[in-house]
Amino acid sequence: RWYRDFRGDQQDQNYLYSLIQFDNNGQPYLNGAKLSEGNPFLNLANVKYLLIRNQGQLLSIPNNNALDRISFTSNYVTMDSTTMIQSLKSESYDYRTTVALFEKPDFDNSITDKNGSNDIHPKWNKYSPNYQNITVTTPRDGLLRISEVFYPGREIKIDGKTVKPLR
After folding, report:
1. Which has fewest Cβ within 10 Å: 3, 26, 95, 114?
2. What are 39-87's pLDDT values in tens digits?
3. Contact status, residue 41 vs residue 8, Cβ threshold 8 Å
4. Closest Cα to residue 140, out of 94, 68, 56, 75?
């Protein structure tokens, strides 16, 4: 259900809902002018390329708006799942610099430097299906956003101490 909600499957919509238009005969097509604008769902899911069939050819279109697989920020908003989906569709918060969470984290983002969050770049040390290791060096509290399917059994450690993952 979460995956379908994230994809925007309400009323048979999909990731490309904001990029699709219809011609006079009701046939759908991708609006090329909108491809450069991206789509919040595609961008958050790190979709780097769109594969599009055009007159029998398969074209690879880069999505220059795709977020990195991992990022750091001190900015967050809290909301429920219904509000989150609608907020992404309406772009009512800046998902590039702000993480939407179901619950408030254990730090106060009002005392952090909101302008400097994007200057911190996490680094993958190891990535495998059962183990990921990331290094982040930061002078302030914040959130490491990892674009992965949420798994409740995931164990996360910060400086060797186990912490609860936030959704």
Report:
1. 26
2. 888 888 888 888 877 788 888 888 888 899 999 998 999 998 888 888 8
3. yes
4. 75
CA dist 90 and 158 (Å) reads: 34
pLDDT digits (tens, 9 = 90+) for 85-113: 888 888 889 998 999 999 988 876 655 45
Separation of alpha carbons 45 and 58, rounded Å: 22
- Contact yes or no for 45/147 (Cβ under 8 A): yes
Tell me the torsion sign for CA atoms 82, 48, 75, 136. positive
C-alpha–C-alpha distance, residues 27 and 36, integer Å: 22
* CA proximity to 28, closest of 13, 43, 42: 13
Whether the pLDDT of residue 154 is over 60: the answer is yes
The token duo for 104 is 């408030």
Task: Give the 3-state DSSP-derived string for the chain, with helices as H, strands as E and coil as C.
Answer: CHHHHHHCCHHHCCCCCCCEEECCCCCEEECHHHHCCCCHHHHHCCCCEEEEEECCEEEEEECCCCCCCEEEECEEEECCHHHHHHHHHHCCCCCCCEEEECCCCCCCHHHCCCCCHHHCCCEEEEEECCEEEEECCCCCCCEEEECCCCCCCCCEEECCEEECCCC
Closest Cα partner for 33 from 43, 12, 47, 19?
19
